[in-house]
Amino acid sequence: MNGIAGLDIFSFSILFMGLLFLFFRSATPTRDIRFLLGLLITDTLAYVFFMILEWLNITHQLESVENLVGASVPMMWAFFIYSIIQNGITKDLAINRENLRITLNSIGDAVIATDVKGRITQLNPAAESLLSLKVSDCLGKRTEELFTFIEISTRKKISNPIERVLESGKLIKIGLNTVLQTKSNKEFYISDSAAPIYNDHNEICGVVLVFSDMTERFRQEEKIRQHEERFKLAIGASKAALWDWFFDTGKVVYDDRWAEIIGYTLQELEPLTMDTWRKRVHPGDLINLEELIEAHSRGTIDFIEHESRLKHKNGEWIWVIARGRIVQRDKQNNPLRMTGTLIDISRQKKNEDDLKAQIEQNRMLNQEYAQKNKELIESIDHIRKINAELVEARMNAEESYKLKSAFLANMSHEIRTPMNGIIGFSELLNDSKIPEDKRINYAGIVIDSSKQLLNIVNDILDFSRMETGKISLSFEEVVVNDMMNILYAFFEPQAKAKSLKLTAYKPLSNDKSVIITDKTRLRQILTNLLNNAIKFTDQGSVEFGYKKSRTEIEFFVEDTGIGISPELHEKIFEPFRQAELEISNQFGGTGLGLSISRKLTEYLDGKIWLDSKPGAGSTFHFTLPLKPDKSGDTKIRSEKRLPNKKMYNMLVLVVEDDDVNYLFLETILSKSQIKTIRAANGLEAVELCRQNQDINLVLMDIKLPFLNGYDATRQIKEFRPQLPIIAQTAYAMHEDRKKAMDAGCNGYISKPIIATELFNLIDTYGKKMSS
After folding, report:
1. Count of alpha carbons within 13 Å of 237, Cβ hemisphere only?
2. Three-state DSSP class for 57?
3. What does the alpha-carbon distance between residue 24 and residue 313 come to, in Å, rounded to a whole number?
4. Which of 251, 326, 373, 573 would be a feasible disulfide site paired with 383, CB 3.0-4.6 Å?
5. Which residues lie below 8 Å from residue 768, measured CB to CB, with a gap of 6+?
6. Strands 651-655 and 675-679
7. With helix as H, strand as E and coil as C, how does 71-121 read?
């Protein structure tokens, strides 16, 4: 027996059994590997078979076949091992691809991969969802075929970042100022980056583009920016200074307004710390302020609000009000940051001091009158009356301070309407193509609006008395139809400009539409309601009119505008209130019109209400009682005096810097043969009076350049004490009249000047000088 052959048979038998074990026990062999393994088993089995034949010396004729089979075994093994290695590599690549796919699908940002020519090779679901496209729609296409990048502010197209990466080989980032626009014109605010993809040879083989939909974030940041802008505008309007105190570092941030309040610039105050404030606080106020800060730090009080004195750069003490709140604490509740405002209230404090001085003066007068009351028993009733008047004056002074803000806000609201009428119809009068009858009608409207404006200016102080019920009324006969016609002519251009149909309902004849009431107040109420109706109506119509019963007359103003919710029907009559904040922002206005209308209606013994629903328009109603006759304590009709027709032989010096006012005075004075000369300022007036002894009377304006009317009057009275001087000025307050008289003026007339009143003063003061 051949020992080598026996050993070969034993070795290949072991190999054969091992191969069978691998064939049947391998966990997950691929089909190709199992096929190769089967061939190797068959080849090995054949070789063992030939070896057994050789060992048994059965035949030697198959030796060549045996050698051929034996030679193929190593080749089969080599091919088998190579296939196993390749299969492992393929599995690793498949695993890597699957891992990459899972990773890309898990990323929340949109990811697009391209080849070196910029053609899309892969994109994840986030990109599909954002672009509303499928993978099959994108593969092989360039990105510019699917979307473009646009710069937000300029709306210009931005160069493709993929091309820029391929050109530069560097990472490209694009910030929040970029919009991605799809071919369907959808736009997204994005933040993206594009990076090169390198192969094993460190060569660029593509680009990966990653971008996020930042639309919501951009909108939120835009809202924050708008809120910050509104906050800055509000702070600027309130003239409040801002400060920010960081407890852990001791750093304090002040704004320019804070430094401006005490007369410095921020650079002059550096370094900025709490000592910058502490060393300028009045010692009498500092202790209380420190106690408030400590109490707020402990949480005893919610915020700090304190009036104190700060030393100004000029050495004076100014009053301020400081407000602050802790906005940040650490985990142990220790304060870290406090912010607040500072407002200069020196003017308010001065007003308060003046008021206290007046109250003290009144108190002293009360004591004086009380002493006189003891000494003069017979005058006790008179003294008590004076005391009561003093108390009432003090209460009125305190109340006027509270109503100051409402008074100032109302001035614009009340004056605007007649001014529109004056300006608008004055411009129409310049059109030569308008028929004469319309020109006369327009001129009447201008005159009527001017009178209304004058009445409003004269009566605007009455608004401060509305709360106390001390507004004056003037009753007279009013032809309601005439008022309807005037209001229609006044508002018809406004309605026409908005394509609204304006209708005036007049069910009665002129003689039956006569009522007794305050004409100015009635027109004021109707004007307010019509203003609102046209302002809040964008399409449809506005109708106004009246109906009369046996005891009262009911007016109405109806529109097809935005309407008002039932729960707001009472609130809109409150001062400074409009139906909704959005309406206020859209249409503007002070919110006083309806409040004034309600109060005026109540003063006229009437009532006002409305019917309205959102989107269904509004109808405002108000009633006035019908007065049976003209008797009573109220003034029925204002006396109207004709212009003075006397002829004067006198020379009047008109001291007036405004050309239009001088032309008016020269015109009305020349009709009575009064000669006039003009001085344009106070210095010139003094010199003319010194040089020209023929001047019989001076009409002195108060607000003049170089030398005001008060001082000019004092100087003229020094060398011509008998020369009459009449102050003619736009200053119409009681204290202004007193200042003019104290300066030496003989008479006083406020602008706009009424001819009859002026000639009455000339009769009184100029007659002696002209004789």
Report:
1. 6
2. coil
3. 101
4. 373
5. 724
6. parallel
7. HHHHHHHHHHHHHHHHHHHHHHHHHHHHHHHHHHHHCCCEEEEEECCCEEE
The confidence band for 509, taking pLDDT boundaries of 50, 70 and 90, is very high
> DSSP letter at 460?
G
> Among 83-87, 276-280, 391-395, 513-517, whose mean pLDDT is lowest?
83-87
d(C-alpha 167, C-alpha 634), whole Å: 93
pLDDT above 70: percentage of residues in the chain = 69
What are 337's strand-pairing partners?
246, 328
How far apart (Å, rounded) are the C-alpha atoms in residues 436 and 441?
9
A 10 A CB-CB count for 463 gives 21
Residues 6 or more apart whose CB falls under 8 angstroms from that of 562 comprise 536, 537, 538, 583, 614, 615
Q: Which H helix or E strand runs over 423?
A: helix 404-429
Give the three-class secondary structure for 673.
coil
pLDDT at position 695 over 90: yes
CA distances from 200 to 121, 197, 203, 204, 205 (A): 19, 10, 7, 10, 10
Helices 593-603 and 519-535 pack at an angle, to 10 degrees, of 150
Tokens read off for 225: 């920016």
How many beta carbons lie within 10 A of that of residue 241, not counting itself? 22
Task: Determine phi and psi for 650, rounding to 5 degrees.
Answer: -155, 165
**Which of 693, 765, 692 has the alpha carbon at shortest distance from 728?**
765
DSSP state of 161: H
For residue 253, the cross-strand partners are 244
DSSP codes joined into one string, 568-591: GTTGGGSTT--S-HHHHHHH---S
Ramachandran angles phi, psi of 175, nearest 5° = -85, -160
- 382-417 pLDDT, tens digit per residue, is 677 777 877 877 776 665 555 455 445 455 545 766
> Rounded CA gap, 616 and 533, in Å?
13
Other CB atoms within a 10 A radius of the CB of residue 296 amount to: 18
Range 606-644 burial, b when 16+ CB lie within 10 A, else e: bebebebeeeebbbbbbbbeebeeeeeeeeeeeeeeeeb
The pTM is what?
0.32
Q: What angle do CA 251, 255, 256 make, to 5 degrees?
A: 135
Q: Return the sign of the alpha-carbon dihedral for residues 434, 435, 436, 440.
A: negative
In tens, the pLDDT along 11-34 reads 555 555 555 555 555 444 556 566
- Which helix H or strand E contains 683, and what residues bound it? helix 682-691
Could you tell me the sign of the dihedral formed by the alpha carbons of 649, 654, 659, 661, in that order? negative
Could you tell me if 243 and 255 are in contact, meaning their C-beta atoms sit under 8 angstroms apart?
yes
pLDDT (0 to 100) of residue 710: 93
Q: Is the pLDDT of residue 636 over 50?
A: no
Residue 677 in contact with residue 693, Cβ under 8 Å? no
Q: Are 567 and 526 in contact (CB under 8 A)?
A: no
Q: Which of 33-37, 39-43, 439-443, 461-465 has the lowest mean pLDDT?
A: 461-465
3-state secondary structure of 235: helix
By CB atoms closer than 10 A (0-12, 13-18, 19+), residue 728 is buried
Calpha distance 453→231 (Å, rounded):
37
pLDDT tens track for 235-291: 555 567 888 888 888 788 888 888 888 888 888 888 888 888 888 888 888 888 888
The pLDDT, as a whole number, for residue 351 is 86
CA atoms of 20 and 34, how far apart (whole Å): 11
Burial 559-588 (b: 16+ CB within 10 A, else e): bbbbebeeebeeebbebeebbeeebeeeee
The label of the residue with tokens 């203003």 reads 531
Lowest mean pLDDT among 17-26, 417-426, 649-658: 17-26
